[in-house]
Specification:
Helix content: 55-70%
Distance between the termini: 35 Å
Structural class: mainly alpha
Shape: elongated
Radius of gyration: 26 Å
Number of strands: 2
Largest sheet: 2 strands, antiparallel
Order of helices and strands: HHHHEE
Number of helices: 4
Strand content: under 5%
């Protein structure tokens, strides 16, 4: 699903009441409540979240590998015990879970970096669109 499709899913089509609103947004636009109109974006949080997802991915894989190494030799040392079969099943279950977490973190990291890039590029484009615009009553240009 593309970022545009996700946005559309969360906020609905243009011109309709959004499915999600900012907590600071006025419930009645004419009431004068809500945000200040100075919404600013920073890609820092997106990049930071992507780094956290990447770290979690790495640590999950490290843990998965250590779990496997910790079970080496158990089968030979406990030959004939019925608990070995159960232990192998638990090991496989945890390896699958950790692999799923690892893969999801990898996907999440990419998505978060994509949002950071997209938002940064959008912010830069908007900022550039104001270059050279004169504000009434001033002599300086806004940059």
């Amino acid at each position: 699903m593309s970022q545009s499709e996700r946005w559309h899913e969360m906020f609905g089509p243009v011109g309709e009441e959004p499915a999600m609103r900012l907590a600071s947004a006025a419930s009645d636009p004419g009431a004068g409540e809500g945000g200040t109109g100075a919404l600013k974006h920073s890609k820092g949080p997106w990049t930071s979240a992507a780094g956290t997802a990447g770290d979690l991915r790495t640590r999950t894989e490290t843990s998965r590998s250590a779990l496997g190494r910790g079970h080496e030799g158990v089968e030979a040392g406990a030959a004939g015990l019925s608990s070995v079969t159960a232990l192998k099943g638990v090991l496989r279950s945890w390896e699958d879970r950790l692999q799923g977490v690892r893969d999801e973190c990898d996907q999440l990291k990419g998505a978060l970096l994509g949002v950071a890039k997209e938002m940064g590029e959008t912010e830069t484009a908007v900022e550039r669109s104001f270059t050279g615009v004169r504000v009434s009553g001033t002599t300086d240009e806004r940059r």
